[in-house]
DNA sequence: CTTGACCTGTTATGATATTACATACATAGA
DNA sequence: TCTATGTATGTAATATCATAACAGGTCAAG
């Protein structure tokens, strides 16, 4: 059940960014609680497999391949055939609780579950962490270019590869 | 060899856009001529396989999977193992003569070979045609968002799915 | 208790991509 | 000309990613 926690919660106060230092235990617990709320509101069910997949994705701000997820599931006693993982991942993506990263053929937990958002992804090529950035400005720019060609955009894939702050500092 | 043609060429005068009506034979021939020039300038070689792959990609403004390309190559008497296609495609991408479309796991000929450009791709979900749009404005918007998080973008994948002008009209 | 919707498990297969090694070809010295 | 070298191509084998099709289980509405 979505356990409420104080609005001045220090975990929440930290910028909810993958790259910023933050209380990740809180970050993950909060995302799970939100997931419960989202699925309840949608009349869909966060079953044990689905919940476990989300927990696995929430372990850190990275993207995991379907087969990596599957291996973890199998170790936990769930089915170990690809559809088990793919179906749960598909469900989470539909519910807005996870995102697919095209460049990586992999999936990452949503950093803002429950909030309508069209994310752009920032992927560190060194440490492989993934953060969500606001996509709206880029999307608007694309809409303008597309409009010029008479093209009506419905969905966008915006992904950037580069160096996160710490890896940049290290280099 | 890149055969020159008049600067007032009607093919060139038409907007070089996948969605606009244009003299595609000229479009493809010109791209091929530019490819010769680009590879010559780079001291790289547009060998028969590579050239044939480019011709195949240039047949229309769509994206083709590596195995589709491979089937065509095999039919032409070239090797019929995956690396034959993947290597030629990789070469073309490196030379800026083709682009990879992540969403489709497929490749498309570059519409502006020889010109430095960072394209965004507009993919029609109905007729599967692919056009290149100017990515710079969207890229700048992304750079701003990324900069806010301390992330240094090196490369972007900008792809939009939607309806091209004619498919939109048909619907 | 039966029905129907949905979820999970499994088998089998399809689609995409790479590694490793062998062979052929170009071309630049000797 | 004749090798030496780098580069390109061919092929076998394998790795990785993804879906189709069907069987059985769960659960709540009727
Ligand atoms: Zn976190
Ligand atoms: Zn990093
Ligand atoms: Zn054309
Ligand atoms: Zn179309």
From TrEMBL, chains A, B:
SUPFAM superfamilies (alphabetical): Winged helix' DNA-binding domain
UniProt keyword annotation of Transcription regulation present: yes
Keywords: DNA-binding, Repressor, Transcription, Transcription regulation, Zinc
Similarity remark: Belongs to the Fur family.
Database matches in PANTHER family: ZINC UPTAKE REGULATION PROTEIN
Protein known as: Fur family transcriptional regulator
Family annotation (Gene3D superfamilies): 3.30.1490.190, Winged helix-like DNA-binding domain superfamily/Winged helix DNA-binding domain
InterPro entries: FUR, Fur_C, WH-like_DNA-bd_sf, WH_DNA-bd_sf
Regions annotated as coiled coil: none
Organism: Tabrizicola soli
């Amino acid at each position: 059940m979505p356990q409420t926690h104080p609005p001045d919660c220090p975990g929440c106060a930290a910028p909810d960014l993958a790259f910023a230092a933050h209380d990740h235990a809180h970050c993950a617990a909060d995302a799970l609680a939100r997931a419960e709320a989202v699925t309840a509101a949608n009349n869909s069910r966060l079953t044990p497999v689905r919940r476990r997949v989300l927990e696995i994705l929430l372990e850190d701000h990275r993207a995991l391949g379907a087969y990596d997820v599957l291996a973890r599931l199998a170790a936990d006693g769930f089915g170990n055939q690809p559809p088990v993982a793919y179906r749960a991942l598909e469900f989470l993506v539909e519910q807005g609780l996870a995102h697919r990263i095209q460049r990586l053929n992999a999936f990452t937990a949503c950093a803002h579950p429950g909030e309508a958002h069209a994310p752009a992804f920032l992927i560190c090529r060194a440490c492989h962490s993934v953060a969500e950035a606001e996509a709206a400005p880029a999307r608007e720019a694309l809409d303008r270019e597309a409009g010029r060609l008479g093209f009506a955009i419905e969905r966008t894939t915006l992904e950037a590869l580069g160096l996160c702050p710490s890896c940049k500092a290290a280099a």
